[in-house]
Structures are given as structure tokens and as C-alpha cells.
Predict the structure.
Amino acid sequence: MASCATGALLLPFAQPLHPTLRDAEEVRAILERKVPPELAVQIVSLGYSPWVAKRRADECIFYPDYSSPDENHCVAVLHLASERVPDDDGDDGNDDNGRRRVVPRRVIFQTSAAYGGWVSDRSSYFAKEEDAFRNSHARFDASILRPLSPSPSSSSSSSSSRGAERQGTGQDMLPPLEIAVSDCWWEPRAAADALREKGWEFVEAEDGRIEWRVCNNSEAHREWQDYKVEWTRGLRADSKDDDRVGKGAGFVELLKPGYIVVLWARTGLRSWCSKVRAATIEIEYELP
């Protein structure tokens, strides 16, 4: 089950500046009057790369209200869906004019959450600090979704340079995906039918996985804990997650134009709960 209440502004974006695709293209055009085109692209990529970003800052409580099927399951709630990576609706790596499409290169997650279960005296309960994370029942996972059609029936509105062209189509009036799909499931995969009804489907890795661990809250703390997790393109596929945060191996490589990233709030064990007060997703991409 889940309940939410609007709170004060929390958890500013990790990156203070988020140029849009149109912004970055305009800067590149100005630079190309002064320097070679290939150098202009490098300058923009280093200092003015485009982003899409989204945040949610209302306090929510997630908890299982009945026993889980087995010890490997815990409740999953779609807490936040990112903006769409800009897309010109091409399907061959290029847009309709033959230009290369954008390439996502970094995803930054931030979360502010607290563990709401019973906690004994942590000095006697955990022999080592890292032990507090190994059986965490309050955590966040991430998945990638792709649209089943150019206009899904739930919004994750793009802030690309083509966004203005979509005005008046009704797409900008649709509810955010995290509002349109607000039920709880024992695992993200169980939400597949509900997501398809809204026009989205999971993107699978080669091994069939659809979710990546973002971060774990310590079971030993009821205080709010803030995490920042950054995943980049090119991470080795055999990189292992640690106890606190996931490495996101292979995640950014699966992210393509038109896709979105979703953040799942997870908690396990009956009557144990996760409290989330803010979360952000920021996606950086390269100019085509």
C-alpha cells in the first residue's frame, strides 16, 4: 500500500543547470561560426551538454499489507518516472532527416528516504557498519521503459527542442506515469500489464533482467538518509554492486531516444515500511 502527502521543497537537483536539446543546438550553431564543427560539438559536450530532469518531493509511505509469496519478494511502487529522452521517432538510429539521434551518457539518481520498521539497539544488532545494508528492506531499484507507440496513454513529457511542437496534441495534459500507475506489486515485473495499458513496456538486458539496484537504506536508521547515485556509459558488465549503492552495469547502454527511466520504491516484510520524501532523476545525453 502507499500513501503520500505534499511537503516542502526538498532535494535540489544534483546538476544546477539543465540545458535542453534546443539550447545546446543553438550554442553549437554559434560556436560553429568560430571553430570547426567537430570542435564545436566537443565544447558543447564538455560544458553545455543537454539534460532531461524530473523530481518528486511529496512524502510517501510504502508498506506490504499482507505476507509476501516468498523471501525474495518485497513490495514495489513506481515512485518516479523520468522525462523522455528526446526522440524524432526514427527507428534506425537516425531521425527522419537522416541526422544521428542523441546518445544518453549519464543518469543521476537522488533519493531521500527513511526506514520505518522496528529497530533494536544498533550497537548490539550489527557487528559491522556494512551489515546494516545486507538485508535492507528499504531500497530503490530502476528500470527502463520504451513506448509501445509514439503517443503513450500516460505522460512522461519530453523537454526536448521538439516539445513545443507537441503542445496542443493532448500528450502534455496526460497524468505522469507515477500517478497513472500507482498500485503496489511484489516485484516490478508484475507491473508489466499495467504499464502496457499505459503504453509502456520494460527494456530487458541480455540476461533478462529488468531492474537494477540503485541504493539501500540502512535498516539501522529511522532518520532520513539522502543518496546520490551516478551511472555512466561504458561501465564494465561484470562490475558488482556494493552494499549501499548499485553500479548500474549495462544500464545506460540500454537507454535510447524516446525511452524513460523509472524509480521503484521497495520494502519488504509485513508491517515494515519505507518512507520517501523526495527523489530526482537526471539524464545527460550527447548531441547527435
Remarks:
- Residues 21-31 form the longest helix (11 residues).
- Residues 2-286 form one domain.
- Helices lie at 21-31, 37-47, 122-125, 131-134, 163-166, 177-180, 192-197, 251-254.
